[in-house]
């Protein structure tokens, strides 16, 4: 066979040209294969290493690149360079995900959706790793692994367990705010462009005068909210398990770029002592009436990844990636996440995951970390003789102008329950009684009844007591929906 000179020449990974990629090297035309056929060995060895561990949660995801643009001046709250001037544009990456399903899970399953954003700012990467919900199931990180176990497969049956989910939720009533959102229409968006995003935690902003403000981030979809019912989703899953990938990739490919407006709620630092709810409790929102949304900017997703694995699967989002002008808060969950993500990345991707192109900052990087597996970048301090610090050989040095103002803390060190100012029922009550319409409430009851299918009765009875406490109508609605389901089942038997 002659070579087509217009096409690049196939080589081994060591660069040696390959004469045949069709036939293994054998003794005789029937084989066996020779041990010396390194080309075959290399191909098989690479195939064996094509998979990396999937994310322990949020394994199934869809992402794209885009641009964030500032539309309003918030420099009085934050000196983050991303917010420096109105009109300033910053490149970014978004990855949306479901939480519980594995990488092959169907996209249209009812679940909380991840809403992870990486802003490649000129002062380092800022990651906001949020969800499409403003609250979370638990407010203490010690409970997170247990909660996730209830969402994953039962060790013996290898099936997901309704009993485990409702058993946990029934014993951790602060979770019922998030459960209400999950079981409402917003728990099953038609595709990722039809949902809001939230930073969920309370973070902080600080300005050049050293003032700190507590902040919550909101991203409002500009496509509007659109959702499927369970029945519609089941029908879609019957046709495709990849509906979100098809929708997001397809829209961006066709030039229909989805957009979200960024808003913040701002709380002056000392207000945190006065609010009737604990502003650092991740199971609570700040009511809009108390802290209205302030517009900041808008992002648009306008570029698909060229390679899903390299740019979406290997993307590493972490709450530990923060920049000047943005800080943490006492939120216990947030504190734990600062550890957990980079640890997960070192396991999932390797020591130098931040040097993978999708994770690499688009600003100068100088540090003194050395060596390690797969170190393909050499030294990043800028001078070969300056491989330690302090040094007098021109290596990178600290810049005190980036000092964060001190965080005021008080109290004793102990294993302490979250400060309870309002009960766990008040905010889901507001959502159930005031925000949802009659039709939305009816769908909520049906979705909960469906999710309770197969759960042990004692577990259901226990959790229903909590729904009654949120609102007697809520508990009654779920019981009626369960009775209706049971009647249908009996009629069908
Ligand atoms: P508001 O009446 O000012 O706002 C209600 C909020 O609820 C809006 O953000 C609305 O989103 C959102 N919403 C509507 N339907 C659903 C749903 N099915 N699931 C989740 N959110 C939904 O209310 P308050 O600020 O006084 O809060 C009342 C309750 O609303 C809270 O207890 C909380 O449960 C819920 N909520 C509050 C948020 C907040 O940050 N304050 C954020 C989201 C929910 P949209 O405007 O996009 O329609
Ligand atoms: C992914 C831990 C709470 C949103 C992950 C991953 C871990 C993790 C280990 C996988 C990371 C990776 O391999 O790349 C935790 C812990 C939590 C917590 C320990 C609580 C203590 C939350 C909360 C939110 C959230 C409260 C949202 C507000 C996400 C998202 C992803 C993720 C969006 C996927 C990020 C991506 O697209 O790559 N979490 N999580 N998590 N988590 Fe959490």
TrEMBL record:
One Gene Ontology CC term in the entry: cytoplasm
The enzyme's E.C. designation: 1.11.1.6
Cofactor(s) needed for function: heme
Keywords, ordered alphabetically: Heme, Hydrogen peroxide, Iron, Metal-binding, Oxidoreductase, Peroxidase
PROSITE patterns from the UniProt entry: CATALASE_1 (PS00437), CATALASE_3 (PS51402)
GO biological process: hydrogen peroxide catabolic process; response to hydrogen peroxide
GO molecular function: catalase activity; heme binding; metal ion binding
InterPro entries with a match to the protein in the record: Catalase (IPR018028), Catalase_3 (IPR040333), Catalase_clade1/3 (IPR024711), Catalase_core (IPR011614), Catalase_haem_BS (IPR002226), Catalase_immune_responsive (IPR010582), Catalase_sf (IPR020835)
Domain of life: Bacteria
Catalytic activity: 2 H2O2 = O2 + 2 H2O
Domain Catalase core: 11-397
SUPFAM superfamilies referenced in this protein's UniProt entry, alphabetically: Heme-dependent catalase-like
Annotated heme binding sites: 341
Isomerase is among the record's keywords: no
Region (Disordered): 1-30
Active site: 58, 131
Biased composition annotated in UniProt, kind: Polar residues: 8-25
Assigned protein family: Belongs to the catalase family.
Its job: Decomposes hydrogen peroxide into water and oxygen; serves to protect cells from the toxic effects of hydrogen peroxide.
Protein name: catalase
Source organism of the structure: Paracoccus subflavus
């Amino acid at each position: 066979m002659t070579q087509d000179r217009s096409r690049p020449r196939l080589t081994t990974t060591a660069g040696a040209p390959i004469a045949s990629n069709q036939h293994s090297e054998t003794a005789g035309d029937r084989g066996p294969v020779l041990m010396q056929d390194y080309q075959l060995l290399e191909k098989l060895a690479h195939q064996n290493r094509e998979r990396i561990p999937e994310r322990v949660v949020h394994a199934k995801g869809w992402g794209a690149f885009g641009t964030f643009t500032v539309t309003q001046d918030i420099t009085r709250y934050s000196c983050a360079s991303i917010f420096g001037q109105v009109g300033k544009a910053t490149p970014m990456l978004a990855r949306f995900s479901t939480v519980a399903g594995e990488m092959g899970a169907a996209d249209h399953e009812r679940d909380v959706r991840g809403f992870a954003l990486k802003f490649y700012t000129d002062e380092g990467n800022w990651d906001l790793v949020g969800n499409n919900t403003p609250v979370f199931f638990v407010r203490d990180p010690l409970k997170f692994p247990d909660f996730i176990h209830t969402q994953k497969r039962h060790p013996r049956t290898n099936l997901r367990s309704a009993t485990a989910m409702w058993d946990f939720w029934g014993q951790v009533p602060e979770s019922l705010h998030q459960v209400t959102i999950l079981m409402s229409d917003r728990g099953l968006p038609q595709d990722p462009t039809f949902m809001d995003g939230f930073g969920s935690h309370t973070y902080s902003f600080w300005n050049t005068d050293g003032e700190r403000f507590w902040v919550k981030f909101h991203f409002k979809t500009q496509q509007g909210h659109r959702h499927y019912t369970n029945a519609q989703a089941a029908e879609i899953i019957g046709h495709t398990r990849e509906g979100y990938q098809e929708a997001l990739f397809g829209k961006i490919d066709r030039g229909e770029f989805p957009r979200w407006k960024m808003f913040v709620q701002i709380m002056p630092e000392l207000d945190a002592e006065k609010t009737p709810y604990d502003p650092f409790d991740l199971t609570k929102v700040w009511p809009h009436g108390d802290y209205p949304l302030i517009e900041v900017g808008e992002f648009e997703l306008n570029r698909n990844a060229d390679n899903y694995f390299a740019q979406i699967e290997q993307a590493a989002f972490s709450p530990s990636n923060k920049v000047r002008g943005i800080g943490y808060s006492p939120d216990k969950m947030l504190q734990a996440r600062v550890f957990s993500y980079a640890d997960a990345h070192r396991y999932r991707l390797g020591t130098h995951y931040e040097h993978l192109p999708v994770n690499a900052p688009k600003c100068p990087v100088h540090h003194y970390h050395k060596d390690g597996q797969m170190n393909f970048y050499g030294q990043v301090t800028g001078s070969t003789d300056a491989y330690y610090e302090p040094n007098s050989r021109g290596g990178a040095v600290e810049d005190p102008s980036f000092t964060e103002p001190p965080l005021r803390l008080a109290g004793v060190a102990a294993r302490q329950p979250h400060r309870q100012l309002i009960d766990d029922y008040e905010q889901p009550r507001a959502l159930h009684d005031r925000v949802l319409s009659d039709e939305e409430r009816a769908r909520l009851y049906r979705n909960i009844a469906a999710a309770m299918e197969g759960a042990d009765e004692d577990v259901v009875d226990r959790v229903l007591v909590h729904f009654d406490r949120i609102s007697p109508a809520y508990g009654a609605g779920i019981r009626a929906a369960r009775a209706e389901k049971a009647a249908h089942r009996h009629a069908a038997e």
